[in-house]
Amino acid sequence: xxxxxHILLLxxxxxxxxxxxxxxxxxxxxxxxxxxxxxxxxxxxxxxVQISAPxxxxxxxxxxILAALAADPRFKDFAVFTxxxxxxxxxxxxxxxxxxxxxILYKGRTEVARSVGETxxxxxxxxxEKAL
Length: 132
Description:
- This protein has five helices and five strands, in the order αβαβαβαββα.
- It is α/β, with parallel strands linked by helices.
- Strands 1-3-2-4-5 form a five-stranded mixed beta sheet, with helices on both faces.
- Helix 1 packs across helix 3.
- The longest helix has 16 residues.
- It is globular, with a radius of gyration of 14 Å.
């Protein structure tokens, strides 16, 4: 377990530094789309909603961690949607988010976990595992 955490940290650091090429994944984040969100929920897929802002340092720290976790086969079926905290205030309110750097996790239609401001890779990994 510790080795996996070290690998995730190194991968996240490499991605953050731009030393690795971008690779497409099933869990690659896309801008929030109501129809795609509804479809993913109907299919019973795990769904992650990331509410972030481009100026947010915590959001920037979360991105490489989430990218590294997206490479993990356990999370290949996740649908990941992004919402801009500043530009999409109606969606921010709809999801009940109080601030940027919010991660909301669904298993199908049921919200199973929520996190705000988390940047520890192992804690974000544990969050995602709740939807498996």
